[in-house]
Automatic annotation (TrEMBL):
One of its GO terms (molecular function) is ATP binding. Keywords: ATP-binding, Cytochrome c-type biogenesis, Membrane, Nucleotide-binding, Translocase, Transport. It holds the Pfam family ABC_tran. This is Heme ABC exporter ATP-binding protein CcmA. Residues 3-221 form the ABC transporter domain. The keyword Plastid does not apply. InterPro entries: AAA+_ATPase, ABC_transporter-like_ATP-bd, ABC_transptr_haem_export_CcmA, P-loop_NTPase. PROSITE patterns: ABC_TRANSPORTER_2. The keyword Isomerase does not apply.
């Protein structure tokens, strides 16, 4: 499976956020996006997730399930945890599992876990029956992460994924991310931190000036 962006441009609020952006991402690889605040890292992730429209250029996914869109192959793990505070921790996972359609294209062998199993792995099984409103910031972040495992999808779109996590949880998350790559998944992540992802390519975004194009550097991260 290959994710392709060809001369992509996105406008938001009457402003061109980026233009001429091109990259290709093969199965089993990560794309690590860096750049100053405001250059469009989060906007790019939201565009890939189908939340922001493309103004120019093309997005394509080769080798995916033909009856599913790019967004339906992806999990979006953004700044907001998308947790329903009035529901219990377990009810949140059951809701996501019933709402999100799984995607399993050929070559993707990502692990599927039951809600209680992933909560146990993340160290928050003791909160299963508590309202999500009672969780700490770190526990809420781990609950948001848990949804990636109850409904398999090959593309993880992750915006500052280690935010609000302690060192132990951050190391565990990196283990999950590398396991996802080893299973044939793909990760596109925006970060200000060093992420030990292998194999990975780097994409540095800079604010476009006077028609300058932003291109994939294609370096190893």
């Amino acid at each position: 499976m290959k994710l392709i962006a060809d001369k992509l441009a996105v406008d938001r609020g009457g402003r061109r956020v980026f233009a001429g952006l091109s990259f290709q991402l093969e199965a089993g690889r990560a794309l690590v996006i860096t750049g100053a605040n405001g250059v469009g890292k989060s906007t790019l992730l939201r565009t890939l997730a189908g939340l922001v429209p493309v103004s120019e250029g093309k997005l394509a996914l080769e080798g995916g399930q033909p009856d599913r869109s790019l967004a339906e192959h992806a999990h979006y793990f953004g700044h907001e945890s998308a947790v329903k505070r009035a529901l219990s921790v377990l009810e949140n996972l059951e809701f996501w599992r019933s709402f999100m359609v799984p995607a399993r294209p050929e070559g993707f062998a990502g692990e599927v876990l039951q809600p209680l199993d992933i909560l146990d792995r993340l160290g928050i099984a003791h909160t299963a029956n508590l309202p999500a409103a009672y969780l700490s910031a770190g526990q809420t972040r781990r609950l948001a992460l848990a949804r990636l495992f109850v409904t398999p999808r090959p593309i993880w779109l992750m915006d500052e994924p280690t935010s609000a996590l302690d060192k132990a949880s951050e190391a565990q998350l990196l283990g999950f991310m590398n396991a996802h790559l080893a299973a044939g998944g793909q990760i596109v992540t925006a970060t200000h931190s060093e992420l030990a992802l292998h194999p990975a390519d780097a994409l540095h975004l800079a604010a476009p000036e006077q028609g300058d194009e932003v291109e994939d550097e294609g370096d190893e991260a």
